[in-house]
Structures are given as structure tokens and as C-alpha cells.
Amino acid sequence: MWGNLRTLVCGIAVVAVGSGWIPLDAAGQQRRAPAAPEEWKAPMQVSLKIGGQRYESSTPGKCTHALVASIYQAVSELWTAEQSEDGRSLNLSFWRPKDGSADMVSLSITSGRSSHRVSTVRGAPLAGSGKVALQPSGKGGVFTVDAKTAEGAAISGNIKCDVFAPHVAEGG
């Protein structure tokens, strides 16, 4: 009799969990994280001049914003812009420290065999110099770049993000 009762109870538990009546974590098992959705992309336009060469792209990209982020113990507001396709890529991180100190930027651009990098992030190895300004526009904004790589290549122009998605913190 007890064997039949145990089989009945286990059978009901399997049906309840399997059918979704009882969530897996309530049944004493760990719930799996849902599969990550396909990377969020939105319209983005890039028009830069790098060392005399044009870098133009309208490939959809990923632009994000975090009201509070931190880099090397500098609490900051953060905006990012990322775009990649066919051997070309652009990555921009624009930090505005909450303490009112100067904005910081990390910019890397690759096109074929050519690669350019600028970083003014305090606490990290510096590479080149320059400034980035952000002009908000609707749900997005336009970054205006005026920088120079350590090798002397001037980078100037605009990166336009139609919309900023919420930023997801890395590493933690």
C-alpha cells in the first residue's frame, strides 16, 4: 500500500512540475535562466574622418545608457555605441563622472587591417587624446568626436544613435 501511495505522490509531483503548475524552483530544483534574446540592435549612423580617410556606416548597432556606472572607482554616467559588420567595427564608451571631473572616452575603430584607438580613461593606459560631446536627441543622441590617436591620426565626425537601450553591467 505504501509503495502505491509513494508512486501516486511522485506521479502527481512529476505532472505538476512538468505541466507548469509548480515552478521548478518551488519543487526544490534550480530554475534555469531564460535564453538570452538576440542582441538588441537599432538604427545607427557613423560619419567619421580618420587620418584623412572616410569611415561611413549605417549598419544597425547597439547603443546603451546607464545613469550610474563605475570605472576605476569613478562613479559616472555611461553611454556606449557599438557597431560591427564585414571586418569593420566601432566601439565607443563615453563616461561622465558624477564628481564633475572631465569626461572620459574609450574609442576603437577597425576597418580591414587598419585599427585606431583613443582612451582618456583615468586609471587605464592612456592612448591618444581628445574629446567627445553628446547631444541628446529624442530617445537617442549624437556623439561628436574630436580626437587624435597616439600615432597622430586625427578622428573627427559624428556617431548617431537613434535610441539608447538600458546598459547591462559587465562582470557583476
Written description of the protein model:
A hairpin with a 2-residue loop joins strand 8 and strand 9. The protein has 172 residues and is mostly beta strands. The chain is built from one helix and eleven strands, in the order H-E-E-E-E-E-E-E-E-E-E-E. Mean pLDDT is 82; it is low at 1-38. The longest helix is centred in the N-terminal third of the chain and has 18 residues, at 2-19. It is globular and about 35 Å long. The protein has a six-stranded mixed beta sheet, with no helix packed on it. Strands 2-1-10-9-8 form a five-stranded antiparallel beta sheet, with no helix packed on it. The protein has one helix at 2-19; strands at residues 44-50, 53-57, 62-71, 74-85, 88-97, 104-111, 114-119, 129-137, 140-148, 154-161, 165-166. It folds into two domains: 1-34; 44-166, no CATH class.
Average pLDDT across residues? 82
Order of strands, main sheet, comes to: 7-6-5-4-3-11
Domain count: 2
Count of individual beta strands = 11
Which stretches are low in confidence, meaning pLDDT under 50 for 5 or more residues running?
A: 1-38
Shape: globular
Give the helix level as a range of percent.
Answer: 10-25%
Cα gyration radius (Å): 24 Å
Strand content: over 45%
Q: Which assembly state applies to the chains in this document?
A: single chain
Number of helices: 1
How do the SSEs run, as a string of H and E? HEEEEEEEEEEE
The end-to-end distance, rounded to whole angstroms, is: 52 Å
